[in-house]
Amino acid sequence: MKEKFKWFVLLMALFFLGSVAFVQAEEKEMRPEVKAAIEKLDSEDRGERRKAAETLGRLRDKASLPALIDALRDEDFGVRVNAADALGNLRDKSATPALIEALKDEHDGVRISVVVAMGYIRDKESVEPLIEALTEDENEGVRISAAQVLGNLRDRRATPVLLKALKDEKRRIRATAARSLGRLGDPEAGEALIKALKDEEVRVRLYASGSLGNLRVASAIEPLKKLLEDEDARTRCATASALGKLGDNSGLDIALKELENEDIRIRTEALRALGYIGETTEPVVNGIKKALKDKNKSVRRVAEMVANQLRIEIKTEKEEKPESDQR
Length: 327
Fold this sequence. Notes:
By secondary structure, the chain is an all-alpha fold. The chain has 21 helices and no strands.
């Protein structure tokens, strides 16, 4: 019995020594610039502390995690903002409990940064606190950020609160809710999004049409056709894309027309719409080939992507020249 006890004591001692050695090794391996920034978080100068938290966010070293969590309680709001941003950059779920607590911070900017950090970390444990932030926070920026992050987390627990936000008096909250509902993949949002197609705010109509396409809501086809006459060109293109996803080509003429729009964003949206509609008629092929020569690189890149998607043969300038010109 005594012999067994001796072996137990010996094993525990070896375990303890190994743990100490591991911790010491970790401390020795900490990068000098990380260690220096962590030390500056204790500076009496708030400017230095702010810069230190910002530096740690840029360095993205998980050895700084405990120090950054402590910095969420700094007396200076700027330090707390930078600490939250840095924790978001680390993408470590062990920071979630501290971030949830920081959602109660008195400063609006801190709470916004905390919500954004939660979006980067993507921990499902933050869904309920984010729902609470969307429904109860008094700051519009916090609520908008919460609505956006809830969409990015793609958790259907957020469907009811986003549906409620779709009727909010603040137009930016309605717009963000319309966009996020399309990311949750919950068909229950279909009816409310169809109603949102008549919203007075253009971005609500824009995002609602996109979400209906993403959710493949078949009952939205006729209401979407009416939106093809919207005064906003971007909304018309988004609607053409949504209809294309639903197997309807009613937006084809709109997409072809908007290929000539002066706005780069509209031309790229029109090209994407053609990709979703999926037709390869002569006007479509000619329109895409013309876009391949667009003066804007982004438009050319999207045109090439759509051409490949539709399996449209792309010829180089050399291939297009007659044989007599190549001699």
